[in-house]
Design goal:
The complex is a heterodimer of chains A (193) and B (456). Chain A has a domain of 99 residues: Rna Polymerase Sigma Factor, Chain: A (Orthogonal Bundle). Chain A is built from eight helices and no strands. Chain A is 72% helix and 0% strand. With 193 residues, chain A is mostly helical. Chain B is α+β, with helices and mostly antiparallel strands and 456 residues long. Chain B folds into three domains: 110 residues, no CATH class; 166 residues, dinb family like domain (Four Helix Bundle (Hemerythrin (Met), subunit A)); 117 residues, Nonspecific Lipid-transfer Protein, Chain A (2-Layer Sandwich), CATH 3.30.1050. In chain B, a hairpin with a 4-residue loop joins β5 and β6. Chain B starts with 5 loop residues before the first helix and ends with a helix. The chains are: A mainly alpha (193), B alpha+beta (456). Chains A and B meet through α2, α3, α5, α6 and α7 of A and α1, α3, α5, α6 and α7 of B.
Chain lengths: 193, 456
Amino acid sequence: MAKKDAPPRWDRKMQQRLARGEAAALGELYDRFASLVHGLAHRVLGDERAADGITREVFAHVWENPEAYDPKQGPLRSWVATLTHRLAVQRLRTTETAALARGGTGGTEELESKVRRASVAARADYIVTSMPTPLRAALELAYFQRRDYRQTAADLGVTEDEARRRLRLGLQLLSTAHDTGPSGTPPEYGGAR
Amino acid sequence: MNGANPFEAYDDHGGHEDHTDPEEHEGRVGPQGSDDSEAENGPHGPGGPKDPEKGNGQDPDEPPRIPMPRSSVEDTGLPLPEPALTPLILEHRVLKALLGAWALAACSPEEAAAVEDHLGLCGACADEALRLREAVGLLHRPESLDLDPALRTRVLESCLERRPPRIPVPEWATPYDAETARLDALLQDIGDAEWHAPVRLRWFERDEPTSRRTTVAGVIAHLLTVDGLVAVTLGLDDPLEAPAESPTPAARTEAFWRASHFPPTRSVRGPWREQAHNLVRTVAFAGGGSGQLPVSYGDFELTLRDSMLDRAFECWVHAGDIADAVDYPYEPPSPRHLHAMIDLGARMLPTALAARRQAGLAGPGHVRHLVPAGAPGRSLRLEIEGLGGGEWLIPLDSPGALASPDHEVAHVALDGVEFCQLAAGHVSPEEAAAGQVGDREAIKDVLFAAASLSRM
């Protein structure tokens, strides 16, 4: 489960501790965000070792530039997710371009659509883990557990109206994953650049 | 309990979990199509989903179950919405509300048919339907979140090389940092019910195997309470609020268990994790020199440095107990950390041997020539094989005696993990797979002394 409810205070204190050069803070940062970072990178790159590499880059970047995060712009979690996304998409484009240059199949157009697909998929994952728990729970039941909306309502102890509302709202949120910027990087992960 | 619980109740539907292809949902529209909760459809009003022409959902003329783009409405030759406008006002709202359920194929066949009819007539809903349907395609079961625990060490080390920390974590606290992170990752993966899986804590007392039954949550409470001994030494809050009969790990644990009216639940994870983070942080601020501070375990003491190693060792051992209880794999610590733990055990052996002698447990016929402190005495060569292994010379005659290769009377070889299992009381001295050469009595004493290092 994502620990998405960290209060802003935690974010601010974490930033101060990182800026102060506390190695223990770096460990705590890793414990909180490593699975988010690795999961997003893996969704974009589809490769374990490449995802390991991005994980290393992301934490190194935060550790070396803690002041780059501005708590006023949003939660640290969003900032870390956006950073991960940017680095992973960059890496994907670089490796795909290199493959193309080596005479790989497909053209630039195909490359762009691959990058875009990966980018949307990663953003969708993030949206699912970050959406309010009631919406995620409804989608989880209807999609993964194959419950219809009446069963979903019963399982969640809400009215059928409410179950329908949650399913629709959850999908509406999820559909914003397609709203990406020109470079394939989403404008924001619910927060800072 | 909250909304996470109901997931568990439907585990028997798990067979479907692999079908993440949204198209597959087509086949199961309305498993309860005749559900009498149709009454809920009241708002549809007359002529809603029960439209006689489309109501059975099997009409061969049924439009394909993909949303129709607005532009195609005119091309289909279907009647335009105007004629039915007045009775559809209510219905439009209801149908719109159904779009999410429809996109997930989570409504009855009658409702699905009504939605699909409507999509041919209403451009706004058709657009949304398409968008939601595409969104369904983005749902993925999250990939396995099992991160390689070694990745943590690699990532942290590479960060610290690039920017050396101003407040480093002392080398001797890193095994504790790594082991608590590893256990926490395991706890993250286990379900609510598994927190109550039975676990038997095992140790040796007066050469006899002893055990105490608890649960996964009970084990974490035990770790929280005993780690609390270190917390108290460092001036942090004591997690144990109830009075304990004595400040020993066992008495504190029993007091903690007794003090709560209900068996511990997964809610102990937070306090345990937070305390572990605080311990690492606090020893980092205290600096490497703080390693010599004494930590009292009630009937014995360890330096802070050894105590943090001991807590790392216990964390691994109990993580193994938990992993066994919930049927997860669990690996030994990294070789460097395993080596430090074995070293701690080897260094504690002389005192444990002396304690056994004092308790009259040392074997008969044991030649005891007291050796003055600092003088060389009879020694046993402990050879630990495998990653993290090494060789240790154990002075046999007294803790103060100097181990000496010239006075080596026996040689024991065993695997590193096996030695740790022995010292944890999980393997009996008789059964430990050890290669042995030399004085059998001395070997037996050392193996039993290793087992006596274990405690609750």
